[in-house]
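> example.struct
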C-alpha cells in the first residue's frame, strides 16, 4: 500500500464525551423514574392532596391537620374546645380501612393527651361504629385510597350519617 496523501490529524484526540453521556443518561433515567412512580401512584389511587378528597366526596370538612405544621397542637386544642368538649355522647374516630394500626395509635395518643374523655373510641371498621355515637372520620393523606373514600361515603349514605364531622390528617 502506498499513501496518496498525507494524513491530517486533529490537534486533540477524538473520544466519547463521558461526562456528557453520564449526565444525559442520569437525566433521562431520573425523568423516567419519576414518571413511572407517578403513574404507579395514580394507579394505586392513593389520596395525597386535600383537593383530591374534595373532588371525590361531597362532604363539609371540619379541619385539616398537618402534623408537620407549627400550629398543629394549637389546632388540636381548638378542635377539642369547640367540637369534642360539647359532645356528651361517645365519640368514635373512624379511619379508612387501609390505615395501619400504628397511625391510628399515634393519632389516638395525641387526642387522648389533649382530651381526657373515656368516651373516645378509634376504629377502622365501619361495622363497629354505633349509630348513637358521634362519628368523626379521619382521613390521613398518603394512606387513604380514593375507592375507600367512595365506599365510606356509600356506607354513610346507607347508615344516614352524613351529618358527621370530617378531619383530614397530613402526615
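> example.seq
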Amino acid at each position: 500500500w502506498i499513501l496518496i496523501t498525507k494524513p491530517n490529524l486533529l490537534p486533540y484526540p477524538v473520544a466519547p464525551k463521558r461526562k456528557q453521556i453520564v449526565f444525559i443518561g442520569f437525566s433521562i433515567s431520573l425523568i423516567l423514574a419519576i414518571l413511572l412512580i407517578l403513574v404507579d401512584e395514580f394507579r394505586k389511587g392513593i389520596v395525597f392532596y386535600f383537593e383530591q378528597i374534595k373532588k371525590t366526596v361531597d362532604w363539609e370538612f371540619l379541619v385539616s391537620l398537618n402534623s408537620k405544621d407549627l400550629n398543629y397542637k394549637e389546632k388540636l386544642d381548638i378542635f377539642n374546645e369547640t367540637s369534642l368538649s360539647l359532645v356528651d355522647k361517645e365519640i368514635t374516630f373512624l379511619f379508612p380501612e387501609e390505615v395501619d394500626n400504628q397511625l391510628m395509635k399515634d393519632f389516638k395518643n395525641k387526642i387522648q393527651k389533649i382530651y381526657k374523655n373515656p368516651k373516645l373510641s378509634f376504629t377502622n371498621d365501619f361495622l363497629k361504629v354505633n349509630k348513637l355515637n358521634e362519628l368523626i372520620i379521619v382521613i390521613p393523606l398518603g394512606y387513604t385510597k380514593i375507592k375507600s373514600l367512595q365506599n365510606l361515603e356509600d356506607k354513610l349514605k346507607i347508615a344516614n350519617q352524613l351529618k358527621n364531622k370530617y378531619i383530614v390528617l397530613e402526615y
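> remarks
The first strand starts at residue 63 and ends at 66.
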